[in-house]
């Protein structure tokens, strides 16, 4: 039954966590690590102080964080209020984390004369700057860059699709992928 299945999955999840406690489900766990990097020490400790161990999956690997045990003011602290500007500062950290994760998957097919993580990060920054901000779009852009080379988006026909702001980012990216497929199609 669904109740038995739910109980079994809950048991497996809680038993796989090395420390007994509760799980907090974030809407977008990939942002948790970058958020911890972007906030100041006090805000980071206030966030981490709400639990004894934090575990999250960033789409590539499991991550872990613990609060500072030498914190001079332990005890209850309200969670910090984060402004939109502060959340925007997480973007470079998120892109760097994605680049590090993609390196393991794509390193064998990347240019040999550059550092893999730096090359991937530069491509992800290009994609983000062009309006492709979702993780699925970032990886699709990266695959295009691997196949077509860095700066592919500045050359026709890709530049034509990229400049068409009347279309959604997903549509423009699909059109660029289609152009690549047309290049390699047999007649």
Q: Could you walk me through the main structural features you see in this protein, from its secondary elements to its overall organization?
A:
- The protein has 187 residues and is mostly helical.
- The chain has 9 helices and 2 strands.
- The N and C termini lie far apart (54 Å).
- A hairpin with a 4-residue loop joins strand 1 (54-57) and strand 2.
- A two-stranded antiparallel ribbon has the order 1-2.
Write the topology of this structure:
Elements: H1 2-16, H2 32-38, H3 41-48, E1 54-57, E2 62-65, H4 84-88, H5 91-106, H6 116-129, H7 135-148, H8 158-163, H9 169-184
Antiparallel strand pairs: 1-2
Helix pairs in contact: 2-5, 5-6, 6-7, 7-9
End-to-end Cα distance, whole Å, is 54 Å
Major sheet: order of its strands? Answer: 1-2
Compute the gyration radius: what is it? 21 Å
Low-confidence stretches: none
Helix content: 40-55%
**Relative strand content:** under 5%
* General form: globular
Number of helices: 9
Supply the helix-strand structural class: mainly alpha
- Elements, N to C (H/E): HHHEEHHHHHH
Rounded average pLDDT: 82
Largest sheet: 2 strands, antiparallel
Count of distinct strands: 2
Question: What brief labels describe this structure?
Answer:
187 residues; mainly alpha; two-stranded antiparallel sheet
Quick overview of this protein structure:
By secondary structure, this protein is mainly alpha-helical.
């Amino acid at each position: 039954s669904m109740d038995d299945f739910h109980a079994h999955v809950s048991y497996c999840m809680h038993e796989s966590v090395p420390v007994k406690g509760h799980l907090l489900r974030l809407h977008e766990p990939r942002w948790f690590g970058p958020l911890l990097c972007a906030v100041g020490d006090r805000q980071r400790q206030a966030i981490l102080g709400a639990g004894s161990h934090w575990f999250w999956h960033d789409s590539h690997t499991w991550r872990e964080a613990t609060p500072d045990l030498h914190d001079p003011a332990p005890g209850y602290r309200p969670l910090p209020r984060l402004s939109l500007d502060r959340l925007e500062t997480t973007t470079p950290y998120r892109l760097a984390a994605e680049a590090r994760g993609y390196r393991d998957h794509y390193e064998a097919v990347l240019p040999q004369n550059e550092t893999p993580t730096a090359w991937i990060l530069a491509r992800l920054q290009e994609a983000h700057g062009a309006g492709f901000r979702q993780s699925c779009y970032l990886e699709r852009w990266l695959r295009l860059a691997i196949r077509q080379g860095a700066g592919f988006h500045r050359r026709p026909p890709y530049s034509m699709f990229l400049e068409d702001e009347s279309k959604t980012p997903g549509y423009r990216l699909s059109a660029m992928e289609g152009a690549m497929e047309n290049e390699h199609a047999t007649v």
